[in-house]
Amino acid sequence: MTKKKNNLISIIPAFLLMGAAIGVQVGNIIKYSIVGLIVGIIIYFFLSYRNKRINNK
Fold it and tell me: Distance (Å, rounded) from C-alpha 5 to C-alpha 13?
């Protein structure tokens, strides 16, 4: 079997871009980009922790 690639890191820029898109519509790009970056980092750490727990069983 081939080893599965770990593409989990791509979640962070995705949330950053979603935050920037919302910021463009609302009019406050920097604020929503920072919020998107923070949410992306939190979700990245949550999913990596969850994957480590699942793989250790």
Answer: 18
